[in-house]
User: Fold this.
Amino acid sequence: MEHIKIVCENCKSELFVDWGTRLKDVAKMIATPERKEPWLAAYVNNSIRELDYRICEPVTVKFIDITHFEGMRVYQRTLFITLHKAVHDLYPDNRFRIKHSLSKGFYCELEGIAPTEEVATKIRARVDELIAQNIPIVRNKMLKDEALEIYRQLGFEDKIAIINSRPHLYVTVYRLADMAGYFYGALAPSTGLIHLYDFRPYGEGFHITCPRRTEPSMLENVVPQQKMYEVFSEYKDWVDIIGVSNVGPLNQMISDGKSTGLIQVAEALHEKKISKIADTIAEAHAERGVRMVLIAGPSSSGKTTFCKRLGIGLGVLGFHPQSISLDDYFVDRTKTPRDESGDYDFEALEAIDLALFNDHLRRLFAGEAVVLPRYNFITGLREWHEKPLQLDDRSILLVEGIHGLNPRLTDGVADNLKFKVYISALTSISMDDLSRISTTDNRLLRRMIRDHATRGCDATATLQRWASVRKGEDKHIFPYQENADVMFNSSLFYEIPVLKAYALPLLHSVPDTVEEYAEAHRLFKFLDNFLPISPEDIPPTSILREFVGGSSFKY
Assistant:
């Protein structure tokens, strides 16, 4: 029997295993009594693999559990297919759809079934049975026609649509007993590795709660997010009406030459929403004297372009909008606070020169002319605009930045003068009924493309910083989002097919010798599900132009 040397990063040692040894057997070899969380999957040469993967050549292996970002995704996917199996057993004629993230969990719907506690209890009981049975989840690669037949027998039109839209001879199918699913990421080897979850009625559907990544013995707190729920619900209705709720139908419309119409409808919806927000601000100005609009949201949500388009909408109504970016109030890079890892924490409120910003606000509202700063992202140093800014009686000051909804940012400004807008790319379409498209992935693709084009960062650097960015968002942005007067969804249901052409070369540039290759590879596989759309029909005022270039706005 041939022996193969592997390097195991978890135990920092070399091991020798037989040819064809499965990862799960290697996991047993390195098991220790003090390990609390089970391994869910592993990186093999920085590519994610299920634990049934066989080792046939020398490799480097890193096992991951639920405390790892990708380990949490593996846990969630495993829970989703187990839930789908439970729902299909109980309600085989009703379509089950996991729609989007919400309230520290996931919102889903069971069409034709009222979301009652009685229904939730039945589903939880069946999920618990499946977990107790520790049923294997098997990954099979098969001919496309074989997979289509399996999905036809189950009545899964969503999966048939996405497979038919992808030009591949073979596809991957995951089997859980008589249930089959399609995923673009790894799953755990069996249902028994789901140790904690909850499933409760929420709005018109149900809420799935997972464990905390940092404290896996505890469930995430369900944070009320009524405004976020309403925004998602509105866009869900839109994509259902247009017929692009999943990637399969979207690809079909692209294949049929209808991408121009998709772009026009999506952009018209944005224009309508921005105009409505401008009208609402005008009403607030008349009723309570609003002078400042605070526009906040996570990274790459399109705040800058939204701010400029909102300014046009306010100008149509007779106002004189003036804009300020909080990014220009960054302290010099060497003065930026650092996180617990010693890295610059650009998401911290203290990365903003609060004293200077509030002094400028005070002087502007007093009618003074103020010379504003301009931050140079290449040098990490503050520069200054040549022309001072001065407000008049019809001026509305638009302030955009990730901290806009944090009360500490503008604690010296009376509340009646402020109007708050939260903006994020709340992805409205799904891969299929079971595989949602992460809003975070949407924003990461935007940021990667923009960072490469305008901030001198390659894809590896963007991926390297992304975990810190997300951590900062959880701490500094998301807790304040429900404080907004209005929310705006900046996602465009045609955008990922456009971003694909820009992102693929950047992802290809990430070497497989670095940890970031794992995320690059995952995103590459994700984008493989989309047919491309040319950017030529995107209007120059589109939010997407902020990331792919060609905007008529100056940034």
In short: Residues 86 and 125 are 9 Å apart (CA to CA). DSSP finds 15 helices and 21 strands in the chain.
